[in-house]
Amino acid sequence: MGENRQRRINTIMRATHLNTGLFLAPWLLIYATSGFVLNHHQWIRDKLGVTSPKWERVRVDEFTPSRAFPRDSAERAAAILRQVDLEGPHHVMGPPNDQRMVINRVSGAGNYRVTWYPRRSLIVVQRQLPFSFYRLLHFLHFRHGYDHRHWPTLIWGVIVDAVTISMWLWVLTGIYIWFRMPRKRMLGSLCVVGGSVLFIVLVVLLCL
Description:
The chain has 208 residues and is of the alpha+beta class.
């Protein structure tokens, strides 16, 4: 009975260790790649010839709001983005006034800057161009949270939580699998102690 129970536990541990890694492989590769890019920021920029993006006008629409146009700033921003087919994660830049409202529409391929000029009845849409895979990696690395009720953003937030939980599971299941392999205990012990000591020393030194 005890051996069967232990066998089931071993199976669960190995399956958890393996399958979560397989499911989350694209996100882990993105975080690994973007982490390397961030760690070698200037070298990567120089090698790839990365330049700062520029705002380029991509669209101009006439827009005269109806009487049903909302008065609340957040609702107005959402309505303006619907008008130009750019619904999604965004925030209003600075305090709106009767001269203009500026909305930053977040996008991994280059943010949009949507400006509504009430007195001129115009909406001007600009975008950060040219597209850069380097900036896309940065965007994906720091994409987080549940602030925007936009389904891709919400699902990405759930996946980030899954990645963080899985990292804990990988450590715990890895320790369990190592402990169940007596021939590997000495090497594993050296790795655990060595990694822990180095981590603590570096944290202390970085806090000085």
